[in-house]
TrEMBL record:
Pfam families: ABC_tran. InterPro entries: AAA+_ATPase, ABC_transporter-like_ATP-bd, ABC_transporter-like_CS, ABC_transpr_MalK-like, ABC_transpr_MalK/UgpC-like, Mo/tungstate-bd_C_term_dom, NA-bd_OB-fold, P-loop_NTPase. Belongs to the ABC transporter superfamily. Residues 4-234 form the ABC transporter domain. GO terms for molecular function: ABC-type transporter activity; ATP binding; ATP hydrolysis activity. GO terms for cellular component: ATP-binding cassette (ABC) transporter complex, substrate-binding subunit-containing. It comes from the Bacteria. This is Carbohydrate ABC transporter ATP-binding protein (CUT1 family). One of its GO terms (biological process) is carbohydrate transport. It comes from Yoonia sediminilitoris. Keywords: ATP-binding, Nucleotide-binding, Transport.
Length: 348
């Protein structure tokens, strides 16, 4: 069992606030991903849970017990970092066994536990090798096995895949998800990669400048972003965001008009829509844009177009043919639009 509660946890250095009133309960066995751009406070949040950084205020509880003052070694958490710091003089077996020795686990248990952990990450054939004789991906898996071998209640993972190439990231990602499920461990995982977040998480916490912007399942975050920051951060490409005016259900901006928006709101707004929710047609008679760039994605083509001063991207079928500078028309159905207050950026 490991339910983690963060109650208004803040970290300040002088007048600078690295994390502001982080308030969340992470359920036992949940896979929670902290997502946000560089410097938003992800690592600091994680380090406070691990005990590597003191919280300036707020409480951190595990299963209802306050752990703020517990030493890192007395917290039942195992961390995996992006720089995996293996001991170069020890072979894989000894590296994985190391946490057991440090924690005084009886020697009679070591062999079975090391073998179980190494089998989980498919390293059984490499136990005699030194880190220098391994690939980057294999080293990363040694680091994972070293966390697994402790059989902790909580895994804290800080960008554990960032040193791997694209293919290995995908396979190791699947392995991590599987491990946390099999071990029934509560996992907190830090990344700035939204694809990693969306594929791994039960829930995602999106952070910006030390402040939690939204907490939700990947689908909730994708389908109903709480503000323009989340809308602009999630999705590839990010949501199109266009500033304009809303009046009686009609949005207008420069050369874009959208009618029949299901809202009573009026005034200055930011309208958002996803590239895949809109479509593109070459109907010169009513064309309101020119093609600015084309990207072939394999299963589709991303058409980026310029409508006056506004640039938006729309996904078209792969059979759609157009050229740069062609006159085109973007079809933006009213019911797929997201509306945000222009001033606060909050969803309305
Ligand atoms: P990244 O993805 O780049 O690792 P992050 O979201 O993990 O970023 P943190 O490492 O948590 O960000 O840092 C949050 C903020 O706190 C940053 O602006 C950072 O410069 C600041 N910070 C971190 N450690 C200290 C420190 N010891 N003293 C002062 N400021 C710090």
């Amino acid at each position: 069992m490991a339910e983690i509660q963060l109650r208004k946890v803040s970290k300040r250095w002088g007048s600078f606030v690295g994390v502001r009133e982080f308030d969340l309960t992470i359920a036992d066995q949940e896979f929670l991903v902290l997502l946000g751009p560089s410097g938003c406070g992800k690592t600091t949040t994680m380090r406070m849970i691990a005990g590597l950084e003191d919280a300036s205020s707020g409480d951190i509880l595990v299963d209802g017990k306050r752990i703020n003052d517990l030493d890192p070694k007395d917290r039942d958490v195992a961390m995996v970092f992006q720089s995996y710091a293996l001991y170069p003089n020890m072979n894989v077996y000894e590296n994985i066994r190391f946490p057991l020795k440090v924690r005084g686990i009886p020697a009679s248990e070591h062999d079975a536990r090391v073998k179980r952990a190494s089998a989980m990450v498919e390293l059984d054939e490499f136990l005699h090798r030194k880190p220098a004789e391994l690939s980057g991906g294999q080293r990363q898996r040694v680091a994972l096995a070293r966390a697994v071998v402790r059989e902790p209640n909580v895994f804290l993972m800080d960008e554990p895949l960032s040193n791997l190439d694209a293919k290995l990231r995908v396979s190791t990602r699947a392995q991590i998800k599987n491990l946390s499920h099999e071990l029934k461990t509560t996992t907190i995982y830090v990344t700035h990669d939204q694809i990693e977040a969306m594929t791994l998480a039960d829930r995602v916490v999106v952070m910006s400048k030390g402040v939690v912007q939204q907490v939700g399942t990947p689908t909730e975050i994708y389908d109903r972003p709480a503000n323009t920051f989340v809308a602009g951060f999630i999705g590839s490409p990010a949501m199109n965001l266009v500033d304009g005016t809303l009046e009686n259900g009609t949005f207008t901006a420069d050369k874009i008009s959208i009618f029949g928006l299901p809202t009573q709101h009026s005034g200055k707004v930011t309208l958002g829509f996803r590239a895949e929710d809109a479509s593109v047609a070459d109907s010169p008679a009513q064309a309101n844009s020119q093609v600015y760039s084309l990207e072939l994605l394999g299963e589709a083509t991303m058409v980026t177009m310029r409508a006056g001063g506004t640039i938006v991207s729309v996904k078209s079928g792969k059979e759609y043919r157009t050229e740069i500078d062609d006159a085109v028309h973007a079809n933006i159905p009213a019911d797929i639009c997201h509306i945000f207050d222009a001033e606060t950026g909050e969803r309305v």
